[in-house]
């Protein structure tokens, strides 16, 4: 799409995770695009992003020592609406978590939203209850949720096209925004995660990821305790103290580790556990890229990524006690020899970065052509 004037808008660059990697793939696809975000920590921005146009909120964030971006979130919608987009671009591509689609109100060009999820903490009371952090936190999150819902509903009708990162997110867009969405799964750096036939499977299961409530590492730990199976936990986060309190001797915490340690654990574990409901879930695909099966709750992004009987298994969603029981049973009777590492790896390749770039370029091209 030579000559296309493209603007890319992201919610914030306060840490680097899956959604920031998606923006990086946008820039790989359109190297001449200009990138905008209301809050930018320069230490987070990495190639191929290089330059990101920010707003006064970045300076406010820096003035507080970048301890937390949360107090600045009420100011983000207005900052997005005031981005200098109008009449400058042919297409505005928006990476959305909660407020970013407000940028659609700053342009007359076609606006395409790649939705990691509508603001789940704003729309889902149960999700919000697990994230609030006490009475004061609940009240603050409830007020912010009201603002996020209003902002999303205000801007959603202005969108030309909505792309969801999974079927589960597409269903939320339908239910919460009353809009259709096509699905393009996010990119996974398959090349950084590979099988090693020389490495033998060891007698442990693995949980890897941020230790935060919605990822439900607590369910993995309780299931390991009930099953009497070894569990290794990789990652850090605010849930760690609680997890320490409920863990038995069969659970080992390794904290935040290097890529090399993560890959080694993924290659050697019996299976990766995915006890939370993810919008998509990058780490399960990384596990499969290593030829490792995944035991996942059969809801959310796992329905897009895990093929029962081939690359892992879906366990029935339900109350915590039922999930712990079914996960413990699956762990006790799990046989990794049933699964073909080559088949698992071949499935993971369908989520590669190159596949994502082709799919997103085709989607933008269709909007331009239509």
Question: How does the SSE layout of this entry go?
Answer:
Layout: E1 6-10, E2 12-13, H1 18-29, E3 34-36, E4 39-40, H2 56-63, H3 76-81, E5 91-96, E6 111-115, H4 120-123, H5 125-131, H6 134-155, E7 161-164, H7 167-177, E8 182-183, E9 205-208, H8 217-227, E10 231-234, H9 240-246, E11 251-255, H10 259-268, E12 272-274, H11 282-289, E13 294-297, H12 302-305, E14 312-315, H13 320-332, H14 341-348, H15 353-369
Parallel strand pairs: 1-3, 1-5, 2-4, 5-6, 6-7, 7-8, 9-10, 10-11, 12-13, 13-14
Written description of the protein model:
Helix 8 crosses helix 13 (320-332). This protein has a six-stranded parallel beta sheet with strand order 3-1-5-6-7-8. A three-stranded parallel beta sheet has the order 9-10-11, with helices on both faces. A three-stranded parallel beta sheet has the order 12-13-14. Strand 7 (161-164), helix 7 and strand 8 (182-183) form a beta-alpha-beta unit. With 370 residues, the protein is α/β, with parallel strands linked by helices. The mean pLDDT is 92. The chain is built from 15 helices and 14 strands. The chain folds into two domains: 6-187 and 352-369, 3-Layer(aba) Sandwich (Rossmann fold), CATH 3.40.50.2000; 190-351, Rossmann fold, CATH 3.40.50. It has helices spanning 18-29, 56-63, 76-81, 120-123, 125-131, 134-155, 167-177, 217-227, 240-246, 259-268, 282-289, 302-305, 320-332, 341-348, 353-369, and strands spanning 6-10, 12-13, 34-36, 39-40, 91-96, 111-115, 161-164, 182-183, 205-208, 231-234, 251-255, 272-274, 294-297, 312-315. The longest helix is centred in the middle third of the chain and has 22 residues, at 134-155.
